[in-house]
Amino acid sequence: LEEMPWRALPRALAAAAALVAVARASEGHSRSLLEEQGDAGPAAAAPGVAHDAPPEYQDFIPDTLSMTCTADAHTNPFNTQVRGVSIGGWLVLEPWITPSLFYQFLGADEEHTAMDMYSFCQVLGPEEGNKQLRRHWDTWVTEAIIDELAAAGINSLRLPVGDWMYEPYGPYVGCTDGALDKVDWLLDQAAKHKLSVLLDLHGVIGSQNGFDNSGQSSSLVWTSILSTKPIQAVTFVHWPIRSAGWIGTFDSTGFYSSINREHIAMTLRVITAIVDRYHTHPSVLGLEPVNEPWELTPLDILKNFYWEGYLIVKRRAPAWKYIMHDSFRFTPESWGGFMAGCPDIAMDTHIYQAWNNPANKEAFFTNACEQKARIIEMERVFGPVVVGEFSLATDNCAMWLNGFNDNLPGYPKLPCKFVQCPKPYMGSDQPGAPPDPTKPIQQPYGTGTSGPSFGLCPVDIDWVDGDEDVTDDVMTALAAKKFHAFETGHGYYFWNFRSELEPQWSFLKARKRGWIPESLQDVETISSACEKEDKGLYYCLARRGIFEITLKNGMLYATHGENATWIQGLHGDTLVQAADRIFNNYWQTNRDLGGTCDFGGAAELHPMHNVSQGGGNESTTQPKSPAASVSVVSESAPESPRTPLSVTTILFCILLAALVAAGARRFLQRNKGLGHSTPSLELSSAWPQPRMRASGYSPVATTSVELPQTARRSGAPNKLMPASYQTQV
Known about the structure:
Layout: H1 9-36, E1 61-63, E2 68-70, E3 82-86, H2 117-140, H3 143-151, E4 156-162, H4 179-192, E5 196-203, E6 221-222, E7 236-237, E8 248-250, E9 256-259, H5 261-278, E10 284-288, H6 299-316, E11 321-325, H7 332-335, E12 345-350, H8 361-381, E13 385-389, E14 417-420, E15 456-459, E16 463-465, E17 468-469, H9 471-486, E18 491-494, H10 507-512, H11 523-526, H12 531-534, E19 538-542, H13 548-558, H14 564-568, H15 572-590, E20 603-607, H16 647-670, E21 688-692, E22 699-703
Parallel strand pairs: 3-4, 3-18, 4-5, 5-10, 10-11, 11-12, 12-13, 16-22
Antiparallel strand pairs: 1-2, 6-7, 8-9, 14-15, 16-17, 19-20, 21-22
Helix pairs in contact: 5-6, 8-9, 13-15
């Protein structure tokens, strides 16, 4: 190498790599031949694995150095989609799913408030905590409910469990006694109904994401000392300082300063305990080693953990599936090639619309159907994909969805609907339930607001078209599109099987309302659900009645900042028409790649048959593209004759322009710089505008907006628009 010319070095390295690849291939081939002959000598050992590799690996050869596998015998092909529901809020508590368990902590101080599984056991203690948990376990999931789920055509259950059930620590000791008996009971019920069960390690020590669904809301700080006057309130902060301590110590710079090997080792021990306990049970589909590790988890550490957990599972339960969450990074760059060639693996991704910006129903429909392309791409570069969680919620109104008496900053984005808080599902013996109807929202108070007030609980908004409630129609269509899209991969689990308040988050309530087919095997209802979205039979058009600056910012995004001077000079109808064409052009080009019709709230989708075209009273039910009203500016068009201007005229024009500019500047300052707003049209048919119903003052959402009229006739050139954004049809 020292004597080799530097220009030849890359070729030499490539040749060396090729030799290594040939050697590995030869080694694997030799191993296969020896195995066929019954030879168990040293040459048969897998690369990166000890020579005394256990016989459980007989169906594949793992390579720890590369975290890949070879010689997959395809003994347990993933040929059947999972179509199931999650059994959430049962063994791992989440206040928003079962609020009746947590009403008892309203009005409490720092030492007597529980907002997750950990603090529930900490505040109540092992005796009272276990008493309430046993009552909850017996009533939240029953044999009758399993019967109903099986009748709905599902074939699998996803069961969240906590690591404390297998290796108790802290306040869990004594509090969760009996939880494993419930797991055994559910597995037996599943076997009776011919359902499989995915064991989902939902909560681990230190919290893998800082959410309450991990068992403990981490990095919560009580700030009551700052609220002593004037109201002496009990307050706390969580979301602005959220962190996750399972994987290590997270610092204020947004990185992990150290990795907690003890936590990782404990989780691997728990995985071992789970496999040892259930590896012979016929209903177990497999294991999810950790649920929703947050997006700031070091990916290399997480992948190594996934690999070690996989080898543990395959040693004792070679037929189990091993389904790994994407850590909120569902991209080919993150996971492409990871564990390539390894049998029985799948990627879990969670696809929710509850945190999306408010939009019309068409936007939610299209977004649901667009997930097919993402799933297909991930299946191509990684392998099987399972949508492990989704719901029908299109807003963030579910009470305590973002934490007990708390909310994400800026949420919910629409005023919520309120309903009577229901009676406790576990019976009248439950303390504090239902909440006191004589009291407003009670402490402790987080950075956001969500909670019962005067006996009313916030829930998801209804969809209304004019005075007609169309929630059933919207939810039915949305459910069919989601089932259709997610069946592109290897299946899905609806979150959740049940919810105390929310039908959009409850499979059973949604089915009773007719939103979900009687059976998930009803392919006729689902198979063509995304036909319109797949064909792109929508226009992405500028929203009417909004500030011009919002439209212009959206146009700058869609054009990558090109022609900024031209865009800034547009106003009124001319601006709206130009925005229509730019937004629609961008969306039609990029929708298959994941592009959305949003542009910072500047655009929204509309069905083609709803858009009126032409001037005057002309209209058609199936118009051409909105770009049809524009033709390319001819470069050979004759120019208008030029008239010489005198110096006096020029000076007068300059003075007049200065006066106009000064007046405009004062106007903008007086209006806080917001400038013009686009033409406002009467609402009649599109996205959820909140309004108050006459009875009960309960906010609902309308789905109405009138679609744009285009005054310009087809073929009339628009000389204000650059030719690159005009279309000849």
